[in-house]
Write a structure and sequence with these properties.
Largest sheet: 5 strands, mixed
Number of strands: 8
Shape: elongated
Radius of gyration: 21 Å
Order of helices and strands: HEEHEEEHEEE
Strand content: 35-45%
Distance between the termini: 64 Å
Number of helices: 3
């Protein structure tokens, strides 16, 4: 009886150590956020070819948080974070015409969704209405 109890304690300790180790690996893989005030520029290219540019000065750390707070983007929560459906008042409808918003960071396609993009001073972001 005591052996089973001891094995249970050892198994629980090993499980906790593994869980903590995996959490540390996951945490270290996240991009480092930048504290302090940052100035960023966001350009929006609409379906009709018109563009708009917005400059924000913020101490927030993530693009999605900033743009939602400013009312520039909105969307729905999905398995992979915020699915942006509306930018600068224009809404896409993938089911209707396969339209979606493409996000760029400093001229390159974003590797993550807006709510995971870390803000850096001087960065330029783009939202492009895209079909197909």
């Amino acid at each position: 009886m005591k052996k089973k109890y001891l094995y249970g304690i050892i198994a629980a300790a090993v499980f906790c150590a593994l869980a903590f180790g995996l959490w540390r690996v996951w945490k270290s893989s996240l991009p480092e956020t930048v504290e302090g005030v940052k100035t960023v520029t966001v350009e929006v290219s609409h379906a009709d070819g018109s563009t708009a540019e917005f400059t924000y000065r913020t101490d927030l750390e993530y693009l999605g948080e900033l743009l939602q707070q400013e009312g520039l983007i909105s969307g729905s929560a999905g398995d992979y974070g915020l699915f942006v459906e509306t930018v600068d008042g224009e809404t896409v409808d993938y089911a209707e015409n396969q339209s979606w918003w493409r996000l760029t960071c400093n001229g390159e396609d974003a590797a993550t969704g807006a709510d995971s993009v870390v803000l850096h001073d001087g960065d330029r972001y783009g939202w492009f209405y895209t079909v197909g």
